[in-house]
From TrEMBL:
<feature type="transmembrane region" description="Helical">
    <location>
        <begin position="110"/>
        <end position="129"/>
    </location>
</feature>
<protein>
    <recommendedName>
        <fullName>Palmitoyltransferase</fullName>
        <ecNumber>2.3.1.225</ecNumber>
    </recommendedName>
</protein>
<feature type="domain" description="Palmitoyltransferase DHHC">
    <location>
        <begin position="151"/>
        <end position="288"/>
    </location>
</feature>
<dbReference type="InterPro" id="IPR001594">
    <property type="entry name" value="Palmitoyltrfase_DHHC"/>
</dbReference>
<keyword id="KW-1133">Transmembrane helix</keyword>
<keyword id="KW-0808">Transferase</keyword>
<dbReference type="GO" id="GO:0019706">
    <property type="term" value="F:protein-cysteine S-palmitoyltransferase activity"/>
</dbReference>
<keyword id="KW-0012">Acyltransferase</keyword>
<dbReference type="InterPro" id="IPR039859">
    <property type="entry name" value="PFA4/ZDH16/20/ERF2-like"/>
</dbReference>
<dbReference type="GO" id="GO:0016020">
    <property type="term" value="C:membrane"/>
</dbReference>
<comment type="similarity">
    <text>Belongs to the DHHC palmitoyltransferase family.</text>
</comment>
<dbReference type="Pfam" id="PF01529">
    <property type="entry name" value="DHHC"/>
</dbReference>
<feature type="transmembrane region" description="Helical">
    <location>
        <begin position="251"/>
        <end position="272"/>
    </location>
</feature>
<feature type="transmembrane region" description="Helical">
    <location>
        <begin position="196"/>
        <end position="216"/>
    </location>
</feature>
<keyword id="KW-0472">Membrane</keyword>
<keyword id="KW-0812">Transmembrane</keyword>
<feature type="transmembrane region" description="Helical">
    <location>
        <begin position="77"/>
        <end position="98"/>
    </location>
</feature>
Amino acid sequence: CLLLAQRYRLVPTSNGPRLCALSASTSHILLSSPLLNSCGGKMYGTERYAATSDSDAVLDDFMGRIKKIMPSETQDVIATFILFILLPLGFIFEIFAILPQWYETLSEAWVWRVCVLSYLGLNAFTNVYKMIAVGPNGYCSDLPALVKPGYHYCHSCQLNEPPRSHHCPVCDKCALRRDHHCSFAAVCVGHFNQRYYVAAVSNLWIISFATLLWNWSFMWSALGGFSALQLWQLVVPHLALLARVISFSQFLCVMVFVFALTVFLFLTYLIGAQLFCFYRGQTRVEFLMDVHAYQLGFMENVRQALGRRWPLIFLSAFISSPLASDGLSFMMRETASVAETTKNM
């Protein structure tokens, strides 16, 4: 730091000497210097200084945030496009094209159904936002200075990680109590954001179930009524179209139902996977690794993962549900049995 201070001109300020009139390239080299970083990012008590203008700094900060939020992997790009573009468009199509087949638009029956499903949709996307903003590691995830028992070394991050944390090859970082990588939000599901993931999927499942029922009735009305002999048309509608068994408009009605059925089945799988992990007291990673040390019983597993007030998380993403663990240490089956024995004594 002393060599750098002697090389560049300093001007006195109330907080000490400050760098003056550096070029953008020079300031970038200076601020990225390992020597400066080893001094805590400061020089003689001064703040880090960038020679770029305030507008450039704001623009760079904004672009950096946008780049950080936008998914980079192909699977994440496709999945986020489905979640944020196709699903909302499909919902708009359902309430303005399918639902009016039974309830007149803006009628009382139409309005209250749309309001309920709109609330569920807004709640789902609010939970998705919180899932991305909070992340698996929470707002503050500083690791302790001392390595505690159960920690393991991550060769990718070059850090000693707590128990149940694992490295994500997509995010290229470790996640506390990592469950899986959610491509639809381009973020890992872990200790601090699993409650938002479960709530979002549950709300979307209710919406998909309602739209599936609407599309089932709408499709059969377009096909002229239900018939077991026509079920093959749902499996291979393109062949039915080529054989001129159904018209193009009927083909579109079948495809709308198939899309709704696909979304419903996929969301059912996601909920089933979470319930299965809660039942076994595992994350998906721990299931693959056959880890059973954290099995505390179904209800306690749910409280450990979703928080003390877990029934309320489905109502709003902003309802607090404190977790029992800080993400660095977790209650184990042996620890729980000892605590229960001590309590009974």
